[in-house]
Amino acid sequence: MPLKTLGWCLCVAFAALLLYVVVFVVGPTIPNGFGFDSRAYWGFPRDPIYAGPGTANGYTIYRYSPAFIPLLQLFTLIPWPVFAIAWAAAMFGVYLWLAGRSWLPLLCFPPIIFELYMGNIHLLIAAAIVLGFRWPATWAFLLLTKVTPGVGLLWFAVRREWRSLLVALGATAAVAGLGIVLAPDAWSDWLRSLQETQPSIGPNFVAVPLVARLAAAAAIVTWGALTDRRWTVVVAATLGLPTLWTHGLAILVAISALRRGMPERLPAVSRLPRWISWRVAAPSAS
Asked: 209-212: which pairs have CB atoms within 8 A and are 24 or more residues apart?
């Protein structure tokens, strides 16, 4: 058997074993099991939306900005089992796009399968970072969900790519501003809820204080911006997660897309209709 074929067979076997462990060994130990995190995006409307730390009304508490509530209300029209499976399938599609031809070997990285099982938004964050090198407005997704991974925006500041930084912050401000006008109480409740988080517990998170991680993230992305290493943005955003759960490391799959020059393969911003575009020069590959 050729060595390359043997390598792929070993990858398939290991990925299958890892999937079995996550679903049948680790899974039963997680409250509500499959889709535990994605359940936070289903079951709306809720009153109140931000009920405080912990779990409320049988759902994992919702922590992101009210900007996504209208979409989540549409999700709730779908029966929970269907939504949970569809969400996992969609996240797997995002993963395939990010990983490219390396999708099978990268499945051997445990946080990937754990992320698909839990159903968080870490893969969407990875995609937003990659797209952000072409369309900086996608950084609004990070700032309006996890917030602190926005430390990666230092890339634009250090490189003096002011227009890209302005687009990222402007898009965020536009969404937030509209939301505050339409539902000011919900946005004030969100800001309050961000101050009411409880210390994380359990074996599946990295117990390093957020302040220390943000300092390290800022140093890494600053160095990367000065030396033209885009992968440092991915690392910085990962370190900047409010709580660094082990499946949050799935964000690192974005490095695979950057190594393939994915931003340059996307349509140039200047090719979009002028009324929705900014002419942003694509960064060079690292």
From this structure: 210/148, 210/242, 210/243
> What type of residue is 72?
L
First to last CA, the chain: 36
> 201-227 pLDDT, tens per residue?
556 778 888 999 999 999 999 999 999
CA distance linking residue 56 with residue 26, whole number of Å? 23
The string over 190-213, giving b where at least 16 C-beta atoms fall within 10 Å of a residue's C-beta and e elsewhere, is beebeeeeeeeeeeeeeeeebeeb
Query: What predicted TM-score, i.e. pTM, was given to this entire model?
Result: 0.84
Q: What are the helix (H) ranges across 76-183? A: 80-99, 103-106, 110-118, 122-132, 139-143, 154-158, 162-182
Residues 6+ apart with CB under 8 A from 268: 134, 282
